[in-house]
Amino acid sequence: MASDAPEIPEVVDVHARPANHPANRWWKPDEPRSPRRTVASAAITTSVGLAVLAAVGSLTHQTALVPPLAATMAIVTATPHSPLAQPRHVIGGHMLSCLVAFAVLALGWRGPWAAAVACGIACGLVLILKTAHPPAMATAVMIMLTHPPLTPFVPLLAVGAVLLIAVQMVSARLQQEVYPTSWW
Fold it and tell me: Above 60 in pLDDT, residue 24?
């Protein structure tokens, strides 16, 4: 049956994007929300870990709470099963980046350009040695820009990294979870 009514063309909004277009959902990632227990544990454990570093700093009259270690604690508590949160990566990444930065300083290089070079070298080294830990790159940059004394900075950084791992281990045991999932 043919209709005598004129066909009305479909109006298409040329500015409309499909619902699954990234620009329509950039604020809603596809990943599931973390369970409340995980969020609470991560928040409390991060605070406790950083408070331990602040206490060590107060007792030694040195700065033990540095921004890269705060980022480390967030990774360790929020994603404890990630390879980046394992002791080899945390300790190895920070110590290798630290040593690279002090080596670049020993060459007499200073400033933001030298920080960029040190960070790049540290990034390559931790990848080669399979100890990648992104906050450790900030350690290299921080050292290059602030020139802390080798001692006590290096021992405090090592102690800080170990203490953060220990705090997460205690938290995991209290929750009957497993951390670390691998040491080396």
Answer: no
Contact 67, 142 (CB under 8 A): yes
Place of tokens 């220990």: 166
Distance CA 71, CA 6 (A): 65
**Tens digits of residue pLDDT in 65-89:** 899 999 999 999 999 999 999 999 9
Output Rg (C-alpha) for the chain, integer angstroms.
24
Compute the CA torsion angle 148, 149, 155, 159 (nearest 10 deg).
-30
* Residue 159, helix vs strand vs coil: helix
Alpha-carbon distance of 116 to 100, in angstroms, equals: 12
pLDDT at 143: 97
